[in-house]
Model the fold of this input.
Amino acid sequence: MKIPSFIQKPFTFYRDGFRGMTVGKTLWILILIKLFIMFAVLRIFFFPNYLKTNFKDDQSRANHVRQELIERRK
Done:
């Protein structure tokens, strides 16, 4: 199966660019670690699952979401 050129050209551009990096690889590793901390670790502590902790079944969760959407629209 042949990959279309509009997909292959950017892929090879970035692949070859990352291979030639020296300092850039370290910076990308730091960026990825920071993103992991932001989205995985902080989510656990600062964004608890409100619906799962306050409602026991799917029906009551759905009713709460529906009611909130209706009230906020007014």
